[in-house]
Amino acid sequence: MQNQNIALITGITGQDGSYLAEFLLEKGYEVHGLVRRHSISNTARIDHILQSEYNKVKFFLHYADTTDSSNLMRLVAEIRPTEVYNLAAQSHVGVSFEVPEYTAEATGVSTLKLLEALRVNGGNCRYYQASTSELFGGLPETAPQSEKTPFYPKSPYGVAKLYSYWITVNYRESYNMFACNGILFNHESPRRGENFVTRKITLAIANIIAGKQDKLSLGNMNAKRDWGFAGDYVKGMWLMLQQDKADDYVLATNETHTVREFVEASFAELGISIRWEGTGVNEKGYDAETGRLLVDVNPEFYRPAEVEFLWGNAEKAQKALGWERDVDFRGLVSMMMDADLRAIAGMSCGEYKESKKG
């Protein structure tokens, strides 16, 4: 009889995978992660784990690709996980318009391949599917969005995730598998990819301070998002798999902010106030004190179909799972801005503000 908790994480080199691996290792799990072979190492987010006492004792990496069903079959049979967290995907909404067919395969059909590998070889394994708020399409009249909100995805990524959502429900109902969907609203951190808008903002501001960049260029400044901290959200993933019955849950902060507000909050961490002029593609943000142009709008960053408004209702997860978040919006912005400024300019936000006084 298997007593050891053994977790298998796809997408372990990503933001969520790295936080989840840390969380599970601290709980005593044996953790296995799937990584794709690259000519250049992409393990930066988990290098600290690879250099820790966990490596090759409690932490193991396997070369794999979730689009390769034979590979998944073999690894599931060898590892015999008790919990599987499927976080792998082509996860960038904007990029999904450029590579829609690959997104369908890597984000949608790959879920079926993993579920089938678990059905055949997984025994009583519990399964978590990373779902997304992009399922909802951001219709204002549906906000705040919950587990009961109708789906209306507006990107190839959202459509692929919709397939993953329903095939997970189908396997749960057809084969009595313990399979859950976590419908997570936007969750960010200093480990967020540089092509996501929150990290693009904090990284650009750090480069501006360091004299390496003139200004920050963005797309739709009015888009509203429900932004939380990724480290809080991985706790919710784990909690879903500890319940007596499998179900689907929304994880969100229950509040929403515009891209413009994220920009303002990020600059505010440095003691810089932004003055806005113009609207739409002509909108510009200036340093209120010096008059320097710091932000403008580039129409190239608009998407073919915009999701304008995401605002989640996590009441079910809060009541059923006891899930709570520890980091609020301002705390998240502060964490990300400070990390990028330290990395780029070699100082904290507080140190920069002090230097301005001098």
Automatic annotation (TrEMBL):
Gene3D superfamilies: NAD(P)-binding Rossmann-like Domain, UDP-galactose 4-epimerase, domain 1
Keyword Lyase attached: yes
Signal peptide: none
Positions that bind NADP(+): Y127
Organism domain of life: Bacteria
Name of the top EC class for this enzyme: lyase
Family in the record: Belongs to the NAD(P)-dependent epimerase/dehydratase family. GDP-mannose 4,6-dehydratase subfamily.
Name recorded for this polypeptide: GDP-mannose 4,6-dehydratase
